[in-house]
């Protein structure tokens, strides 16, 4: 049996560049990117991978992009969570939805209401785990973790650090995929830094809207063929 990853995290980069390349608006690029997420979820269930995490919206996305673009991203989130809530697979496959980041502070009330509804309806499930990082920054997560430990007046160790992360209930990331990488393979903003210490990395030039289930499957088999040493 293939050694498939148990937790895959995806940095879905390239929506805007894909749109520009195809003579489309930025908004249309984000729309197409949301469709790619839906297809990847299908493949994740097919391979019975229990954890899939998407970095759906960074703090920089909110703070540095135009108001029009950000408002449209919120609308996409609303549409996607509405569809998730109505998706029978969620309940049949016992998929737990979790969302981490500063979304409760920064997203509109309507968007938050839909997200909270999806979380509440699936809170008791434990077979599959679909996680979104929204208004998220990995460095921000670690700084908040340190502040929480300082408040507890405890001496930090590995267990205490992990237990104070927003993402504390997630297992380590086995495979981290970043799309839209051209000549500069890189990570961003301390993305899940504690969970990705020993992750296998898969970089692709493919912009996220064009990231097909076929390439996603390729990344899984690429992982399965590697030998993981974890520093040994």
Based on the model shown, name its key terms.
alpha/beta, six-stranded parallel β-sheet
The name of the CATH superfamily reads Decaprenyl diphosphate synthase-like
Number of helices: 10
Largest sheet: 6 strands, parallel
Number of strands: 6
Secondary-structure class: alpha/beta
Gap from first CA to last CA:
24 Å
Specify the CATH class. Alpha Beta
Helical residue percent band: 40-55%
Describe the model.
- The protein is α/β, with parallel strands linked by helices and 232 residues long.
- It has one domain (8-223): Undecaprenyl pyrophosphate synthetase (3-Layer(aba) Sandwich).
- It contains ten helices and six strands; from the N terminus they run βααβαααβααβααββα.
- The protein has helices at 15-21, 26-46, 59-64, 67-86, 88-92, 103-106, 109-122, 138-152, 158-163, 213-224; strands spanning 7-11, 51-58, 95-100, 128-136, 175-178, 200-203.
- A six-stranded parallel sheet has the order 3-4-2-1-5-6, with helices on both faces.
- Helix 1 (15-21) crosses helix 2 (26-46) and helix 4 runs parallel beside helix 7.
- The longest helix has 21 residues, at 26-46.
- The chain is globular and about 55 Å long.
- The model has no long low-confidence stretch (mean pLDDT 94).
List the helices and strands and how they pair.
Blueprint lengths: L6 E5 L3 H7 L4 H21 L4 E8 H6 L2 H20 L1 H5 L2 E6 L2 H4 L2 H14 L5 E9 L1 H15 L5 H6 L11 E4 L21 E4 L9 H12 L8
Parallel strand pairs: 1-2, 1-5, 2-4, 3-4, 5-6
């Amino acid at each position: 049996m293939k050694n498939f990853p148990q937790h895959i995290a995806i940095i879905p980069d390239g929506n805007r560049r894909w749109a520009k390349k195809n003579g489309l608006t930025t908004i249309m690029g984000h729309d197409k990117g949301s469709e790619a997420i839906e297809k990847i979820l299908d493949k994740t269930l097919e391979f019975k991978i229990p954890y899939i995490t998407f970095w759906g919206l960074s703090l920089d996305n909110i703070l540095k992009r135009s108001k029009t673009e950000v408002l449209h991203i919120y609308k996409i989130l609303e549409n996607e969570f509405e569809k998730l809530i109505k998706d029978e697979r969620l309940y049949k496959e016992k998929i737990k939805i979790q969302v981490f980041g500063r979304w409760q502070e920064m997203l509109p009330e309507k968007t938050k209401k839909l997200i909270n509804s999806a979380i509440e309806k699936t809170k008791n499930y434990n077979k599959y785990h679909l996680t979104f990082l929204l208004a998220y920054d990995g460095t921000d997560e670690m700084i908040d973790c340190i502040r929480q430990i300082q408040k507890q007046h405890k001496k930090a160790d590995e267990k205490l650090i992990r237990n104070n992360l927003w993402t504390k209930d997630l297992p380590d990331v086995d495979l981290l995929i970043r799309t839209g990488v051209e000549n500069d393979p890189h990570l961003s903003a301390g993305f899940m830094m504690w969970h990705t210490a020993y992750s296998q990395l898969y970089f692709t030039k493919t912009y996220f809207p064009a990231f097909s289930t076929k390439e996603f499957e390729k990344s899984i088999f690429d992982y399965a063929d590697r030998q993981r040493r974890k520093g040994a």
